[in-house]
């Protein structure tokens, strides 16, 4: 039986009292995110995201496999989030908690169902061979707002990932190893990001962005909005909690768009820096095997 | 942290764990968290000792039998150096997350049966020891570990310390040995074909790598890189890492 | 007054016998981080700095950690989990075994006049019993005098902040500024902080309660403590930190 640590009455009352005066325990504004850092690993497809004390590591990998029988023209794309006791000693391996189920469901809806990754491009031989792309999400440290950090990490990992190059000649499929041909990026359509709002107060009138673990324990309700920088909403999830005024919810969505644009710009910048770092001799353009269409 | 050949470590990287360490060596990057002594579940309670629980998570894929095997080896060796009798009915929880293992560029990756390379064991072991030291869990001694591969190529025998995945693939046998700070053999696992004489040579090489402390050869800790038995001075590395951590903690004294 | 022997030790290392203090009258006392292997071996069990005190004939290893192990006589900040017929079950460290606090272990408490504490409330208590085979026990009263000596339930506006164990020990020193290098609290109440009004209660289990009428003050003090701890700040840096926080949170 996992032992949950509850915050004291003192802390609960204080967090609410402080919020009523527009004050947060770490001195942030109500709609301010903690410093967000994105780092890539040595190999392609590893993204390390730090959001304050929350740390999430996402790793994307791909292998050739047989497609599903009811979808012969599509590749396979899965996101695995298994929380371990590293996240917190109250999590056990192989025993999914509510946090884990919600996290995995939100990532599923945001990244998979919205068609961010073009699964048709993962098909190699219709009905026989296709790519199976898998993203493993590891939460190294949990201080609140796992959803936003995990979604950011998953998107960054997929955009950073390179799958082995393939070629089809006379019905024979050749998959090249990284030593033979430079790997190629995935076919990426749009980058969705999650923004989670937490509500406090009797009528849920105080809305706060990027809650820490303590704030999450004290909140009355929450709402996660997933959208991309063009303002296209992938999903909105408000799972229970105190009822919130509809107009306030719309305002939350528009502030979310501003934040998503900032995220998008940060990710583009970090990806470009990483590409430049790897491409020191300027050979990347020559090593690419596909033509400019 | 980029994967380097010389060992590098950072302590206290996870803010919410009692102790944590990130260790990188020979292409492996592992992060470990230690929590404990905390309350154990009823089924794991031992009346006179603490229960040591090790969990190994690969970077990609779901962990399988191979990971459970590594967990049980690590658990039995770590439980011998931790002072488990000080905390009856408690739990010391060690989680090891593999972040990066060196790629074999000649082979395409296979996912679902994520098979952790045998040669990752010293990195896992070392990260666990560093994390335990960072958490201040009372221990009998510290320990260092290394991997040695024996390969017979072109008729000549070679002893390779910290083999790469390609070298592991082509080697006749791979061995992992760990020694405590009292020069006792703590862990010895081997895979492949080898003779008793060969194992003795491996033992000599490994004990030189693991038990060599600083101040060799005119007072300078050497990082040897020649063909016969090279390898970093593991014990010296461990000591200097911990010394800088303690100096930073006690800066106010 | 401890000697300034900057000797770094790792678990299992042998200690040079010349460093072990001797005294004509007092027996040698071993503090945390050392264990005695009969007949005459003293071995460190953690990585830290070996400190010897020849006056009191004692030695210990100084190190910092985050997991509190209860020890008799320590003053700590505990949180009530729930109440049973005779005692309260309290949490002194997250995920560790809970401690028991008898209902009547408060100043002048009888069955009718004892304090009624709800789950989630905080108490400032002393560890009355701690050994590895039993769950720890707490008390809020001095058993010989019957006085509380400042212990008891925490009331008033405020919040609890987590710090490392080493920092908590420094706060609890008699002269925390000179011996422990922690000047933030004085500075916050003095001119650098603009004379903020607050009170604190520090527990050896790494929890510090900061109370004040104004939530802004509580947040400033809490942040100052946590950032001094995490950043390993010296006295001058603490002064700059205090000034920055007061300005930021205007």
What does this protein look like?
The complex is a heterotrimer of chains A (293), B (253) and C (250). With 293 residues, chain A is an alpha+beta fold. Chain A has helices at 9-20, 98-112, 146-160, 213-218, 246-278, 284-287, and strands at residues 36-40, 46-51, 54-65, 76-81, 123-125, 129-141, 162-163, 166-169, 172-175, 184-185, 193-200, 206-209, 221-227, 233-237. In chain C, the strands form four sheets. In chain C, strands 7, 8, 9, 10, 11 and 12 form a six-stranded antiparallel β-sheet that branches. A four-stranded mixed β-sheet of chain C has the order 1-5-6-2, with no helix packed on it. A three-stranded antiparallel β-sheet of chain C has the order 13-15-14, covered by helices on one side. The mean pLDDT of chain C is 90. Chains in contact: A-B, A-C, B-C.
> How would you name the oligomeric state of the polypeptide chains in this document?
heterotrimer
How many E-type strands of chain C? Answer: 15
The gyration radius over C-alpha positions of chain A equals 21 Å
Largest sheet of chain A: 6 strands, mixed
Number of strands of chain A: 14
Structural class of chain C: alpha+beta
SSE pattern of chain C, N- to C-terminal: EEEEEEEEEEEEEHHEEHH
Helical fraction of chain A equals: 25-40%
Strand composition percent of chain C: 25-35%
Largest interchain contact: B-C, 39 and 32 residues
What kind of sheet is the major sheet of chain C? 6 strands, antiparallel
- Unreliable stretches of chain A: none
Helix-residue proportion of chain C: 10-25%
Distance between the termini of chain C: 42 Å
Shape of chain A: elongated
Q: How does the helix and strand content of chain A classify structurally? A: alpha+beta
Strand residues, percent of chain A: 25-35%
Count of helical stretches of chain C: 4
- Quick check: average pLDDT of chain A? 89
What is the mean predicted local confidence, pLDDT of chain C? Answer: 90
Q: Unreliable segments of chain C (pLDDT under 50, ≥5 consecutive)?
A: none
Give a quick set of tags describing it.
heterotrimer, A: 293 residues, alpha+beta, six-stranded mixed beta sheet, four-stranded antiparallel beta sheet, B: five-stranded mixed beta sheet, 5 helices, globular, Ribosomal RNA-processing protein 40 (chain C)
């Amino acid at each position: 039986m996992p032992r949950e640590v509850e915050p004291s009455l003192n802390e609960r009352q204080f967090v609410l009292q402080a919020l009523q005066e527009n004050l947060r325990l770490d001195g942030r504004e109500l709609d301010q995110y903690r410093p967000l850092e994105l780092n890539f690993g040595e190999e392609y497809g590893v993204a390390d995201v730090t959001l304050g004390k929350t740390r999430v590591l996402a790793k994307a990998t791909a292998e050739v496999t047989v497609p599903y029988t009811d979808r012969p023209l599509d590749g396979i794309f899965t996101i695995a989030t298994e929380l371990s006791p590293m996240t917190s000693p109250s999590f056990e391996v192989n025993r999914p908690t509510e946090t884990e189920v919600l996290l995995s469901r939100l990532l599923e809806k945001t990244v998979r169902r919205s068609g961010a990754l073009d699964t048709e491009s993962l098909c190699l031989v219709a009905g026989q061979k296709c790519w199976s792309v898998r993203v493993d999400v590891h939460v190294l440290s949990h201080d609140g707002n796992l959803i936003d950090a995990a979604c950011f990490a998953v998107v960054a990992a997929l955009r950073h990932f390179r799958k082995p190059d393939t070629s089809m000649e006379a019905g024979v499929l050749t998959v090249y190893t990284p030593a033979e041909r430079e790997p190629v990026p995935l076919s990426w359509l749009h980058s969705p990001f999650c923004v989670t709002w937490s509500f406090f107060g009797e009528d849920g009138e105080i809305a706060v962005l990027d809650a820490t673990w303590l704030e999450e324990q004290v909140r009355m309700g929450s709402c996660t909005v997933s959208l991309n920088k063009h303002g296209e909403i992938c999903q909105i999830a408000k799972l229970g909690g105190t009822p919130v005024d509809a107009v306030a919810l719309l305002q939350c969505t528009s502030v979310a768009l501003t934040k998503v644009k900032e995220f998008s710009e940060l990710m583009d910048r970090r990806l470009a820096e990483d590409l430049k770092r790897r491409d020191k001799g300027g050979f990347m353009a020559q090593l690419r095997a596909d033509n400019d269409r | 942290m980029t994967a380097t050949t010389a060992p590098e470590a950072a302590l206290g990287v996870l803010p919410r764990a009692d102790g944590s360490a990130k260790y990188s060596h020979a292409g492996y990057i592992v992060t470990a968290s230690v929590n404990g002594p905390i309350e154990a579940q009823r089924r794991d309670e031992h009346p006179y000792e603490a229960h040591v629980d090790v969990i190994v998570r690969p970077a990609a894929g779901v962990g399988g039998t191979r990971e459970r095997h590594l967990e049980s080896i690590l658990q039995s060796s770590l439980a011998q150096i931790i002072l488990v009798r000080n905390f009856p009915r408690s739990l010391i929880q060690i989680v090891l997350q593999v972040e990066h293992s060196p790629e074999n560029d000649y082979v395409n990756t296979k996912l679902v049966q994520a098979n952790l390379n045998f040669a990752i064991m010293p990195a896992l072991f070392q990260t666990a020891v560093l994390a335990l030291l960072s958490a201040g869990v009372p221990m009998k001694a510290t320990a260092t570990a290394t991997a040695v591969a024996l390969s017979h190529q072109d008729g000549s025998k070679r002893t390779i310390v910290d083999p790469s995945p390609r070298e592991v693939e082509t080697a006749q046998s791979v061995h992992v040995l760990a020694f405590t700070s009292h020069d006792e053999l703590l862990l010895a696992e081997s895979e492949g074909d080898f003779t008793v004489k060969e194992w003795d040579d491996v033992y000599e090489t490994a004990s030189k790598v693991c038990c060599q402390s600083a101040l060799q050869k005119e007072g300078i800790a050497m990082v040897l890189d020649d063909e016969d038995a090279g390898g970093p001075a593991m014990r010296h590395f461990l000591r200097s890492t911990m010394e800088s951590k303690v100096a930073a903690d006690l800066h106010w004294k | 007054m401890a000697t300034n022997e900057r000797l770094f030790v790792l678990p299992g290392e042998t200690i040079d016998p010349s460093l072990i203090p001797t005294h004509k009258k007092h027996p040698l006392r071993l503090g945390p981080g050392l264990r005695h292997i009969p007949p005459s071996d003293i071995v460190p069990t953690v990585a830290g700095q070996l400190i010897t005190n020849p006056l009191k004939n004692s030695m210990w290893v100084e190190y910092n950690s985050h997991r509190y192990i209860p020890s008799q006589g320590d003053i700590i900040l505990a949180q009530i989990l729930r109440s049973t017929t005779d005692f309260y079950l309290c949490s002194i460290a997250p995920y560790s075994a809970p401690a028991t606090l008898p209902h009547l272990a408060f100043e002048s408490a009888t069955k009718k006049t004892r304090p009624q504490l709800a789950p989630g409330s905080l108490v400032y208590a002393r560890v009355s019993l701690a050994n590895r085979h039993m769950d720890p026990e707490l008390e809020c009263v001095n058993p010989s005098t019957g006085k509380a000596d400042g212990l008891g339930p925490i009331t008033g506006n405020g919040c609890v902040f987590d710090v490392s164990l080493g920092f908590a020990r420094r706060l609890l020193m008699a002269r925390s500024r000179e011996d422990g290098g922690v000047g933030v609290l004085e500075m916050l109440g003095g001119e650098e902080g603009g004379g903020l009004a607050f009170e604190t209660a520090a527990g050896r289990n790494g929890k510090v309660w900061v109370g004040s009428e104004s939530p802004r003050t509580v947040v400033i003090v809490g942040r100052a403590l946590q950032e001094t701890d995490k950043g390993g700040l010296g006295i001058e840096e603490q002064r700059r930190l205090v000034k920055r926080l007061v300005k930021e949170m205007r």
